[in-house]
Amino acid sequence: MISAWLGALERLILPPTCLLCGAVGVGGLDLCAGCLSDLPRNLAACPRCATPLPPGGIGVCARCRAQTPDFDRAFVPFRYQPPVDFLITRLKFGGRLTCARLLGELFAAALAERSEPLPDCIAPVPLHPRRLRERGFNQALELTRAAARRCGIPLWIDGLRRVRHTVPQTQLDARQRQTNPLGAFALTAPLPGARIALMDDVVTTASTVGECARVLRTGGATDIEIWAIGRAGGDF
Description:
The structure is a single chain. By secondary structure, this protein is of the alpha/beta class. The chain has 2 domains: 1-38, no CATH class; 41-231, Rossmann fold. It is built from 9 helices and 7 strands. The strands form 2 sheets. Strands 1, 2, 3, 6 and 7 form a 5-stranded parallel sheet that branches. Helix 4 (84-94) crosses helix 5 (97-111) and helix 5 (97-111) crosses helix 7 (139-151). The longest helix is centred in the middle third of the chain and has 15 residues, at 97-111.
């Protein structure tokens, strides 16, 4: 309550400023009208994994038709293209937590346009303790906090842990990315019957979130939805 009041006071004293061009923000966002309209929205996407489809494309993508993922569906409102990739990079590698707040608010606004029921809780994809010490924060957790605050969904932070330190996915090819996360996650507590949203910053091959979903399923989760800001790749 106090943090929300302080945030509102800060917005009153310091009007929002676009994180991309420095112009005055709109709608309480740190994004101007022009940059907001430039965001690459993932409008035509696979309903199962959110892979971008050609304009006007509908239906499940070829990869999901060939092998059903361990999660039930995915919601990723933007494509991992400029300027979304720039904002995520500034957050992830530049430590600009203001980008997490903006991206979380953009995600929550897109989520509000859906008619599907909200999950019971939202969990971030965890970092290994070694990576967390190196970076100082978990970008997925920061995005989860921002989205949960706007959507009013309970956080489930410590139930899923990364127990094996893995090579960063960005350093691997597509085939290596598929196997790299295997066995990297474990549950500290089961959630039988739970409907869970699992949040990350970017989904590329969906191998990391897929492995997390497999582990959550072993703990009794009955419905698992992947949430992320940006989706890379495309079924065309």
